[in-house]
């Protein structure tokens, strides 16, 4: 299998299926709302909206949070967390796509066995 075929297969698992696309839309929507929050709210709790994208990408984001805490203490840069949310979403989307693909493969295999037996 060529490298381009592997990359294409990974991309299909991570983005081009219903489950992964819905998950990425959820995380992207949460990030868009969090990014727009300063335009509408100026209270002291306005930055807490970023908890939602982080929670949607947990447990993969837990590693990013741990890395930020270990490397910078409590002063990790914002780019680490935003990039970490995006990377965590892609990793988990790949995992969801893999599970979806394997479950569909089993279901399709069962259907083929039933039609061959009948």
Describe this structure in words.
The mean pLDDT is 87. This protein is 80% helix and 0% strand. Helix 2 packs antiparallel against helix 5. It is built from five helices and no strands. The chain is mainly α and 118 residues long. 16% of the residues are buried. It has one domain.
Task: Report the portion of residues in β strands.
Answer: under 5%
- Low-confidence segments, given as residue ranges, are none
**What is the quaternary state of this protein?**
single chain
Percent in helix: over 70%
Major β-sheet profile? none
What topology emerges from the helices and strands here?
Blueprint: H1 3-14, H2 18-40, H3 51-56, H4 60-72, H5 78-117
Helix pairs in contact: 1-5, 2-5, 4-5
Quick gist of this model?
The chain is an all-alpha fold and 118 residues long. It has helices at 3-14, 18-40, 51-56, 60-72, 78-117.
Name some characteristics of this structure.
single chain; mainly alpha
